[in-house]
Please model this.
Amino acid sequence: MNTIIIFSFFAVFFRLTDLMILSHKRLSEKAKQQHIKVEDIQIRRGIIFDRQGRELALNLELESLYCEPDSLNLDNESVRKLASTIAKEPEVILTKIPSEGKFAWIERKLEPDIAERVKGLNIKGLGFMNEAKRVYPKGKLASHVLGFVGVDNQALEGIELQYDRYLKTRGGKVFFGRDASGRTLSSGVDKEAKGNNIVLTIDEGLQGIVEKEIEKAMLQWGAAAASAIMMDPFTGEILALANRPSYDPNNPGKVNDFEKRNRAITDCYEPGSTFKTVVGIAALEENIARPDMLFDVGKGGIEVGGKIIRDVHRHGILTFNEVIQKSSNVGSVMIGMRLGKERVYKYAKLLGFGEKTGIDLPGEVSGWIRPPERWSGTSIGAIPIGQEVAVTPLQVLRAYSAIANGGSLVRPHVVSEIISPEGKLLVSLRDMEMNRIISKKTAETFKDILKGVVEEGGTGKSASIEGNEVAGKTGTAQIINPKTKRYSKEKFVSSFVGFVPADNPRLALIVVIYEPKGQIYGGVVAAPVFRGITNQALSYLDIPMEDNPHKNPLLVSR
Amino acid sequence: MDKYDKWLLFITLVLIVFGALMIYSSTSVITPALAKKGITEFYYFKRHIFTILIGFGFMFLAYRMSLSYLKKMAIPLLIFSFVLLLLVFLPGIGVTAGGAERWIKLWPSTFQPSELVKLSMVIFLAGYLSALGYRADSFASFIKPIFIMIIFQAVILKQPDFGAVMSLTFLTFAMLFLSGTRLRYLFFLSAPALLILYKLIMEPYRLRRVMSFLDPWKDPQGSGFQLVQSFIAFGSGGLTGVGLGGSKQKLSYLPESHTDFIFSIIGEEFGFIGVLIVMALFLLLFIRGISIANKTKDGFAYHLAVGLSLMISIQALINFAVAAGMVPTKGLPLPFISYGGSSLLVNMAAIGILLNISRGNDNGDMEGLNKKTFARRKAKKGIYNDSRFTIHGLRTI
Model:
């Protein structure tokens, strides 16, 4: 009996040698696996504010439903119940559950009441995980600026994409001790990482005005699309940027590419008459013309390279000023011919055409202007009047802002500050450098010319507003039919670009309406939109009416 | 002072102190679920210490008690424990836990009569085997205690408590075997025993559970869970262990970590060296017990000492083997170490009796001395010195 007992002890001894010495490594590994719980750090993107601290993008904590296929025990009945609770087909749910494994999403970011109902079903093997859903509380407002994120909060468009490295923080993993039921044993570990907050230059109020007005114009003119950008002409701060059609960034899945396009910076168009500024400024800078210089445009046309460029209306003899104010094609071509192609090209480049403005939004295009050596015989008749060039609305706005601010090219931007979650200022884009491109004198002279555009006899008088002087320019351009490679007879781009108050500019604004129906001219289609926006914007900003004795005689008191 | 076996007492004390330490270590981490039940850091430890104090009382009583009185009390004790066993099924007195009715209410705690059954069975068998009428080569002599054992087992199975059935069988068989029963009787009995065993585990789900110890990794989340967790505890202990209190497996991974699987936690915290020391202590305890038996000249005391040593050792061995996955997973506490008052009290009483026998006061007590058996044992021992056992007489231990 002794032997049996001692033998048994030895049997246990050998068994334990195997378990504790030989299998030590393997079993310790197993132990570590089950004792340590690894969790992803929850990443919370930074909040996006407008310039006055109003939230334009924030995070909502929602629960996401996942399953542990290994311990999941779903019968048909519970599948059916689950399906009806989360409003999905049972087959769809079954396809999301692999036959084995530790983790699989079933439905992400459930509404709180639905999550509660799923919990009430008490199905073993289902679990919930907190996830942040990006929410844009203002819906469509400024969607092209803000952009959006995907279901995993990956940046896809707009500021979200451009400033992703600031908004998002590096996640990572936290290690916890845990007990058998998965409860965390360590406490006080920061499981959350917050991204930096961003303050935009966008003003929600101005943005709202711009969006409302272009929406109205879209309906009124049955237009295919529309863009408008409002900018501080001195700083390049974008106060509002809107496009139509638009989308709701809260439902990015339903957005098509046409709606997604931030055409204010990603789409080129032929600017037409707004481009006449290039030859106008060049002529003044190069002393080729003075404001009272006369141009005989009485023939109503001019032949360039065997092609005749015509005016819309016959004008007779016009001063230099009037060529711009009445938007005479013939006069502009005459100025362009006097300058010669080299200088036309030089000033176009100087005013920022053919190059990206450097705005801090993704997808900007540079536009396109052919260098002089590649001009055709007719180019000198086309480029001065804004044909054979491709520009973005933002480039045009920036060129006009240079006139508004006395001759400097600004760098447009939509972000003013980046602030850490602790409140520390990380990046400031205030006080950005300005780059003088033309003399102050030329800018002032040209400003006066642009004021005349909006006065009686100018093409843009429907952009005029009560109490403040407007300086601006209309534009009407044909769209090249991509099939025939010829200018379309029906499709036009109508635009108006300008700034207000003319002598002390606070806002520069461009309105571009693509393919309006019924009317085509910038002065008819776009200028009223400009007026509508600036009227409201000036009162929103509490900008007083100018003391203008001609327009407001009652204000002159004695 | 009496010449009691100081080594036996010392080993026992070491095991008890170490056990109390391990109880504290494995129950002091309070989970929210436990806290809700009002269980605090010292809850189990305090109760265990209380039991130990009572245990010393039992030990002392057993030590002072006259062996002849104990022998007289053998049958009443057996009947008493049988009654207690039946009380388990009485609503209001019996306590059900984990699907088994193994306990009876005994303020302020509960008592597990199947533990007492082992002790009273050993006392009864010692008396029976040393009685004048017992004939090792008689089938009738053999079958009577077997019959009693089966009655007890039938009741214990009803609870059910397979662990207790298993250890009771080993114990009875071992004592009968040592008394010189013919081997063929034991083999003869094995046939129906196996048949009953087969019947019991024939149901596939039960069979799967019983046999899961062969490959617990096949279903580590289900039937193999406890064993896999036990292996992980042993394995992560390695040679030297993770240190006292360092066990992770006790954090509700390993079920019964303070009772049936406390040996795994010892392995995790004190490593291979720790479990070897514990095993060595039990082996030493067994050897001391046997040497006490061999020193005695009284048949009853001899059988009693052997039986009690076997009772403790078999229980410890089964506990080791279960934790190491060598036999099917059945709940049995580790003597002196596991939390569980009934086992501790019974085992401490057993040590008290062993110490009592080691005093050698029974030598002059001729009452109940089975001269024949005694003489034969001496004779056989002399004749068959080279043989481990004899056919017709007592087998040497």
Remarks:
- The longest strand of chain B covers residues 100-106.
